[in-house]
Amino acid sequence: MLCRNLNLFAESLVVIDGSKFKAVNAREKNFTRAKMRKRLAQIEESIDKYFSQLDNADSHDTSESDSASQLQDKITQLKAEMSRLKKLETRMEKHPDKQVSLTDPDARSMVTGGKGMVGYNTQAAVDCEHHLIVAHEVTNIGNDRGQLLSMAKKARLSMGTENLKVLADRGYFKGEEILACDEAGITTYVPEPLTSRSKKQGRFSKQDFQYLAETNEYLCPAKQRLPWHYIVKEGGRDMHCYWNRAACRDCSIKAHVRPPKNAESNAGNMKRPLMLCNRD
Q1: How far apart are CA 162 and CA 140, in angstroms?
Q2: Residue 177: pLDDT above 50?
């Protein structure tokens, strides 16, 4: 309220981003399905190794009873550990995200800087003019894709403004979240993720096609207009399909648009006109 009274939020523009904070929970005290399978496999391998050593000791007439006793103790300890992990696995499966942390139950395994850590994803909305944190939220969700709407609403409430503008990086791009912000009167600026492999394959990507909102067409790299034709369903979403049969048929740069013949997508459709699909 002090910042609002001092008119520090006049721009009504914030940037939203997430930061990973390490929890007081060692990685060894956090279990996911993959970690659990790996740990159980390691224990089974160790038990088999000790049984093999025990069989080898029994097959020889030796007085190394202490060694055999030590092997039995190790096998007993490993079986006890496996029993403990099995109970922990049952507990883990009851969690919605199939994960459990023993020291800090709310902490979750997530990736930051290309490395895994156990911690929290803290969301913050910062005003662009004075760099003040206007809203924050501590989450244990490892990605930012579902955080845009809730953080934007928190920031708008904190700043006491109706017409909020929000900037965020590609990690926040999710159609449902952006649409919900728009319906709530919040303007968002979020770049679309670059998930296509076209560039690596020497082809044009969707970013090379310019959308013409006035006519609902795309302008291709060859400066040809691709009109809208129809909608198809893919993964429960609408895909808007655009092409220009005559222009695409005789296009000199067609090889840089179509996928290679061994690509898994559209492999059987090489003779069809170019189809540029835009997710609704």
Answers
A1: 29
A2: yes
User: What is the pTM for the complete model shown?
Assistant: 0.67
Q: Give residue for tokens 């800090």.
A: 104
Instruction: Please identify which residue in the block is written with the tokens 């059987």.
Output: 268
Contact 157, 185 (CB under 8 A): no
Distant-in-sequence contacts of 181-188, Cβ < 8 A, 24+ apart: 181/148, 181/149, 181/152, 184/149, 184/152, 184/153, 186/149, 186/152, 186/153, 186/156, 187/163, 188/148, 188/152
- What is the homologous superfamily of the domain 2-22+105-189 according to CATH? Transposase Inhibitor Protein From Tn5; Chain A, domain 1 (3.90.350.10)
Do 130 and 147 meet the contact criterion of CB atoms below 8 Å apart?
A: no
**For 196-216, how does the pLDDT look when each residue is reduced to its tens digit (9 = 90+)?**
666 677 778 777 888 898 999
Reading the block at residue 35, the tokens are 């970690």
